Amino acid sequence: MKSLLRSLARDLYILLGQIRKTSLRSKNKLLIRSQSQAGQESFVLQVLGGKRNGYYLEIGGHDGVTMSNTLILERNYGWSGLAIELDSEFCSKYNFIRSNKCLQLDATSADYQSILEDGDFPQQVDFLQVDIDPAEQSLAALKKIPFSNYRFSVITFEHDCYAVEKQNQMVLSESRKLLTQYGYQLVSSRIRHEGKEFEDWWIDPVTIPKSSYKGFISDSREGLSLFSIRSQLAYFLFQSIIKIRESLTIKSNDRA
């Protein structure tokens, strides 16, 4: 119980820090059930106007739940999509839990043109996530995307620029150069999670009007601080309840 209370106290401390940096005028809504690390799934849904039956390509699917940026899109909004994951155990878990499939592939050498064609993706895909480690592999995967043949309405790209390694700064620079070259607009630059700048959020200005993303225009901000204070409080309360329930369940099982 003490460790749980310490965890909740830490979460509350982080929340208060975020709220201090949140605009009182923010109307961005945070999905309280989302597993996203920094509000990515909520960002996607917000700028797309709560779209249902969309499409995603998720490069770095992990286990399909932990820090997932597509779980709620699939379950609650009827999205279709594919994930790419190199780890066989994670890929198996993803396919066991999720309706949409995960392909066990090396994201840096995958044939994305064939993957998108075989998956009957539309020419305008709603969401592209690129999030694999290390950061230079995310860049290698990004360079394999057939941007000349497919457009993506929203893109989240993890560059981990908080790391001091030179290659991470190179990843940041080259990813921005590539996406700008294809006409994408950087909306949220160097998004932070617990103080670490790790990701950029992009949109396709051809399909996304400024009125949909202007509340996210930022540089070096905590991802969750871009959402309304009411949403942050609701998210904190919901996630706290989940932690308490999990803790009580574990204790109950231990006693049994």
Largest sheet: 8 strands, mixed
- Structural class of the secondary structure composition? alpha/beta
Distance between the amino and carboxyl termini: 18 Å
Total DSSP E strands: 8
Question: Quick check: average pLDDT?
Answer: 88
Rg to the nearest angstrom?
A: 18 Å
**Secondary-structure element pattern, one letter each:** HHEHEHEHEHEHEEHEH
Q: Total helix count?
A: 9
User: What is the topology, as strand order, of the major beta sheet?
Assistant: 3-2-1-4-5-7-6-8
Defining key terms:
256 residues; alpha/beta; 9 helices; globular
Which helices and strands appear, and what pairs or packs with what?
Blueprint: H1 2-20, H2 40-47, E1 55-59, H3 71-77, E2 80-85, H4 88-97, E3 101-104, H5 112-118, E4 124-130, H6 135-144, E5 151-158, H7 166-181, E6 185-193, E7 196-203, H8 210-213, E8 218-219, H9 229-255
Parallel strand pairs: 1-2, 1-4, 2-3, 4-5, 6-8
Antiparallel strand pairs: 5-7, 6-7
Helix pairs in contact: 1-9, 6-7
